[in-house]
Design goal:
About 35% of the residues lie in helices and about 30% in strands. The protein is α+β, with helices and mostly antiparallel strands. The chain has a single domain, classed as Dihydrodipicolinate Reductase, domain 2, CATH 3.30.360.
């Protein structure tokens, strides 16, 4: 959605970089604020990128970039991670993304820092190995030992009452291309409530608030007869008018975007 919005500022697009940092850290041992099953599976899977006009597979945790996000007082390492945006946007590159040739999704944060050495050890694998004469699936052992993400209000409240060591995060899309004969970068920050504020607003974690509320806005577009397309569509295929309606719904729940365009 944010990458689609950025296209209105470009005549042509060369590269789209999606950068996501999740920096919420509880005082207790809690590696993930979402499903550990999904986290470990995604982090073991090969990642995708759209490079030189082709969908490619990359190794998870590879090809790091380093980013100094606004409001974050340290440089963040972001790595390859299995997400579907480069695939979907790559398929739609000509029609909806100004014929972009390169699309990357990079991910960083405490969950990545926790899981990367486990990946290098082979602990994220779902293939059995023999240990003292017994066949063991490394990922199953990890799942047995990893606490689940909090789901209920009482669970979240207990964690927040203990205190957080960090309640930060950032989501940025950088789209580089040409505008009026000049090379520019369209940089868009997504602003949303953090973990503590999300709980105060809705009894949810920041992870659940952003992903859940954002999904609900598409339902509002359907209910309000603002989706006119038929067949299988993704958010990347919305018109700018539909994007504006979506962003209006988001702003009502304090999910906003901040876009700057600068020559590079």
């Amino acid at each position: 959605m944010v990458a689609r919005d950025a296209m209105r500022y470009l005549d042509s697009c060369e590269t789209i970089m999606m950068l996501v940092y999740e920096g919420v850290k509880a005082k207790r041992f809690l590696p993930f604020w979402w499903s550990p099953e999904v986290a470990y599976s995604d982090m073991e899977d090969e990642a995708y990128c759209f490079e030189n006009g082709k969908i490619c597979l990359t190794e998870p945790f590879s090809r790091p970039v380093y980013m100094k996000f606004k409001g974050i007082d340290k440089e963040i390492k972001l790595v390859e991670h299995s997400h579907d945006e480069p695939v979907i946007m790559g398929i739609n590159s000509k029609e909806y993304f100004k014929d972009v040739k390169n699309i990357f999704f990079k991910y960083g944060g405490y969950g990545i820092e926790f899981a990367e050495p486990l990946y290098k050890m082979g602990m994220l694998s779902d293939q059995p190995i023999e240990v003292d004469g017994n066949m063991v699936v490394p990922r199953n052992l990890l799942l047995k030992l990893t606490p689940p993400a909090p789901k209920y209000e009482s669970e979240i409240r207990e964690i927040l009452d203990e205190g957080l060591e960090d309640d930060s995060g950032a989501m940025v899309v950088q789209a580089t291309g040409m505008k009026d004969g000049k090379k520019v970068m369209v940089e868009t920050y997504v602003n949303a409530p953090g973990c503590v504020e999300s709980f105060e607003k809705a009894g949810l974690t920041g992870e659940t608030y952003l992903t859940g509320q954002s999904g609900s806005f598409f339902t509002k577009l359907f209910v309000n007869d603002q989706i006119t397309q038929t067949g299988l569509i993704s958010s990347d295929m919305l018109t700018y008018e539909q994007v504006d309606a979506y962003l209006k719904y988001a702003a009502e729940l304090d999910i906003t975007i901040e876009t700057t365009v600068k020559e590079v």
